[in-house]
What we know:
10 helices; alpha+beta
Amino acid sequence: MTTPIQLVTRHGECFAVNSQGKDRADNRDGVLHYFHLTDLVKGRGLRKVSVYRGGPRDFYAPSIAEFDRRIDTVLLNTIRRGFDSGELTFDVPEGATYYKEVLVTPEDFQEQAPASDEEIRQLILNEAYWLSFKHGNRHPVQFDSETDLEYLGVGVQDIRRNQWVLEQDGLLEQSRIPGNGRPKAQLVKMYESRQSAVIRNEQVFPKGTQYEAFKAVSNILRTATKEILVVDNYLGSSLLEMIEAIPSKPAARLLTFKPSSDFKTAVTAFKKQYGQSVEVRLHQKEVHDRAIVVDDKDFFALGASIKDLGDKLSLLNKVEDPANIARLRAEFQTIWASANPL
């Protein structure tokens, strides 16, 4: 990994990655890989990141050859996932000499949980805008690279199927080379617009449309008459404001993994003041995507956490296929039953 690489995340970050080499970790049995990341979205400057790998190489992969073949891709996607989780960010000031350390684990070398179609399309849209239009002189972008496939946990055909959908919606040019594509003017205008757009059964929120997204989610929740289920790994207290505004006061089940630090306190205060049934459970890293289920019949998938929807280009999709609805219902019931109360 000697030349700079431009990376995009599902949540819309775009940055250049420059490898600074590696070294043995002091007082630890492991290696530190050093990187300089340069923000390409808002000019927020340079961030220094070190990725720590502890232990021998055969602890991570079945063979040394397999480890050596995959290590560069895994390191890049570890950085991407750091931005997805909020562990890494360009939005806080950090000293120019300070290296933020993240950890690579054996799980990072394993097959990742597959992203949903909405998340695949989210990444394709982000890459088309940032890597082709904004920073690539409209040259085609490869959407099915090995790095992207591992990041999303999907196969080549999953990428090309979703690319075709975006082509039919007029957001990408018709591809001459499978897996490669360029944005059309509609995508650029949509991305840089401050108004949300509806495409088929999807709603698209360009960056900077947080209030539009807030209203869209609120309107979905307000249709509930009996119960809502919200699945979101990074819940914040703003969701409680949306729940409080639902006229029917339905029971609320919230399935999460890493809520904000004050969320438990906010839920307790909410229940004391309003007496509304709100139950929160923590799953064991069993859910990757975000979802809203209204009255066990209307299922929605989100490309970003509710608290971040519209902060960067985001998708909100209503699931229509009966087989997929049945599958989601069964999976959510199983995960909810095994999850721990907050």
